[in-house]
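Design request, tokens follow.
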């Protein structure tokens, strides 16, 4: 699977792991919880990692997408 791991500078998010093959985004939070979000386009991923506030972008564009908590 083609993936991109991106550490981010955020007070709530530690890492992003984008799966290009199925447009999913694994978000690893600083509290060590991990969620995978579906229907995240490459453009959304690019905008999120380049945004001034990763957390604000996440809340505005990603959080409401279909997701599942993973261990």
């Amino acid at each position: 699977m083609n993936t991109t791991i991106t550490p981010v500078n955020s007070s709530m998010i530690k890492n992003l792991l984008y799966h290009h093959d199925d447009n999913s985004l694994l978000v690893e939070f600083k509290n060590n919880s991990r969620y995978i979000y579906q229907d995240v386009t490459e453009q959304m991923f690019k905008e999120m990692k380049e945004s001034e506030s990763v957390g604000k972008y996440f809340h505005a564009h990603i959080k409401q997408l279909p997701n599942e908590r993973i261990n």
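Comment from the thread starter after seeing the answer: thanks! The CA atoms of residues 39 and 46 lie 14 Å apart.
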